[in-house]
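Chapter review: from sequence to fold.
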Amino acid sequence: MRGEDRAMELLDGEAAQRYISQHLRSMEENDKCVIFLIDIDNTAEIVEHYGEKEKECVTQHMGHMLSSVFRASDIVSQVGNDEFIVFLSGDFTEEEIVRQAEALCESVQYRPEEAPKIRVTACIGVYIAYGRRISFERLFGQAAAALYKAKKSGRGSFYILTNRKELRIQTGGSEEDISGISVNTLMEYMDSGIGLLEIGTEIRLIYASHGLYQMLGRDRDSLPVPCSIREIGIHPDYEADYEEALREGAKKEGATDHIHRICVDGDKWVWRHVRAARVAYPGRENPVMLELSTDISELIRTERQLRVSNERLRVAFRQTPHVLWEVDIGGRTFNIYNVDEQKCQQDTVVTDFPRSFLERRIVHPDSAEDFRKFAEEMISGRTAGKGNFMMRDSASHSYGWGSMSYRMTYDEEGRPLKAVGVQAKLPGLAGIGSSVMRRRPLPEIVRRHLLIRTKVNLTKDAVEEIWLGGIDQTAWTWGKTYSHILEVEKRYLFARKDERSFQERFLREKLIREYENGVLWSAEEYRNVDEAGHIGWLRAVVNLVRNVNTGDVHMYTLRIAPYRTTENSIRGLVITIIDSLGAQD
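The token string follows.
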């Protein structure tokens, strides 16, 4: 019975607050004190399995243990159903407080005789304060913030804050020192603000941290606490909803979240995310909630911009036959992205990528080797890639040439996460042409290597058609001259040493002179830089043609990735390509 008697001797919350406040008012600049806020972790579990009586036994045991390990001059109080505070003053070091917090976490762990399957643990928030002009509200508020941090680390953890010299953290039995960081300085640059709210007939802010004042654009003179929550500048559209959320949250365990706008500096509105949870607070008849708030204005702006971008993407893709796809690198799954619904389609999932594509002949056997290499580079985390393959249409089950290109996304540690890509059909076999200048079919052997295909009116300095990687990009050229596009293309597509020679080769004036001198076709190689920054070789094939109706000189070009073959084969291939381009003079 001695343990129960000692537990009953603990100060009540009101008396504890009175004694602690009296001591704080008497503190000088060199004085210090510390408060421990102790919360039993698993009382709800004890009540669920063993009932309210066993929970009372656990809290009595906690009270007995605390009053037996601290000095008679220390203030020990039970301030809630399963919360306790301990207040110490006098001569101590921070190292001693760390060891004491660690010992407390270990001491409170035990298995009750009536509930042997449950191991009782507690989390502890500790605040060490130095100097004068420290209010009880600030002392308790910082201890509550430390307790919140401890609980985030898991059962049986503690977290220590101090307003001087350094911040020391210890959680879960492992110590981490962050030396030289002033808590006041830390709070000054933190995005989060800390407040204590009393939920009475009127909801009042009874404590605000420096970070909260900074977020509100106020100071302690312009917004003295305690004050009504309506005085902090919450937008009228959100006041009633936020107050209702707080009142509901005060009736339950766990956190309550809310997002609203607040007025800063009298004329600026910012978005604030608040997470509030009820905490034990001595000497208050009304429930008190600890509020942690963060300015999320930038996040809201980014979200809005993302919605606008998604809508643009949705509109753009509705006008094209292109398919947006993605590959989960870790899971090796391929999926089609539904732009309208902004999510992947479950009925298009293909697992075991890329092997399933090959085994199910989604890719034609003639393109299997190229596709396997393309996919392996993707799975290995290559920044970007593209390729042309014979693919089976899911509706008609017939094969046709298509282009696939992608960009890789990475996680915070730089590991490949998802490849996001576009699939499009390659231009028709008849090629690029018109009723006046008909083109012959593009040879099948060229299609797998096709990178760029263009039709340019050199006389008018205009690009009439351009296909990049199998995608019609003609709209991109609207309002731009061929000469301007040549400069941009030279900068992004070719190695620095080949930029000048490429530009000189395709100068509009030079090509027109070549036509006038009877040079109707040519083929040259250049070093190409792909989207991932890799340098390879590109073969450019040119055919110059005059339109018999207008007299304008046109240039048809193919740019293809070269592949290993014999010199005679290359010569034959070039002749075949030029024939497909349809030289007419």
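Two observations follow directly from the output. DSSP finds 17 helices and 25 strands in the chain. The CA atoms of residues 59 and 81 lie 8 Å apart.
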